[in-house]
Amino acid sequence: MKMFLKTLALAVVMALFAACGSDFEWFPEANVAPKANAGANQSVFAGDLVKLDGSASSDENGDKLTYSWSFTSRTNDSTASLSSTTAVSPTFTADKAGSYVLSLIVNDGKINSTAAAVTVTAAPLVPLVANAGADQDVALNQLVTLDGRASTDKRGVTGANGGTLQYNWNWSGTGSKPDGAGSVSLSGADTATPKFTPTVTGTYKITLQVNDLTDLTGDGGTDEIIVRCNLGSMTITW
Fold first, then answer.
1. Which CATH number fits domain 136-156+163-230: 3.40.30.10, 1.10.3720.10, 3.90.1150.10, 2.60.40.10?
2. Model confidence over 158-187: pLDDT tens digits?
3. DSSP assignments along 207-229, one per residue
4. What is residue 11's three-state secondary structure?
5. Which candidate, 50, 154, 175, 176, has a CA 20 to 30 Å from the CA of 117?
6. pTM of the prediction?
7. DSSP symbols for 141-179
8. φ, ψ at 169 (rounded to 5°)
């Protein structure tokens, strides 16, 4: 019975084809233009590496997409160039402060999409600011901890909040330690919070220099802290 039904169905289909003759046409699915998506606008700092993202581009027919990126405009004097014009997520360095506008067109193998745009705004770097902390008054043989985490990098971010800072603490030259304190040394002089123990009363002067690890050009910021050491509280017994 099943075989009979299959044979009957095949005969009906063949009869329909024969009836249509040469006028029969097969209409394939209509191609729809793909949609480009260049990603969200970005805010960065001059000198940052920018990663673009066209992965949200789509094609209604499910066709494989190819990508074409280009600069529509760049800030004055910029020589920025794309790592690839055909990658899904190319990169470029925002070498100058200002605005960068980029265009993305995708193609499904048959037709281009409408161009999509993304704007990258690069803010200028700011001067480094070293902050060695407030001056301190301490007792003899008291462990002293310095703190430079309030210093800011070229993006205005403090060390306490993840700023990309390099720390360098040093005694402030001649007269920076009391007589007899020549053996007093800083521990962790390349960290944000070095330590030392004053073994002689008097004034200790320490200079902090900071640099930005992402941009070592230019002079680093400096700041000095003064630590005054006295004998501490004394108890007198009569």
1. 2.60.40.10
2. 999 999 999 999 999 999 999 999 999 999
3. EEEEEETTB--SPPEEEEEEEEE
4. helix
5. 154
6. 0.69
7. T--EE---TT-B-TTS-BGGGT--EEEEEEE-STTSS-T
8. -100, 140
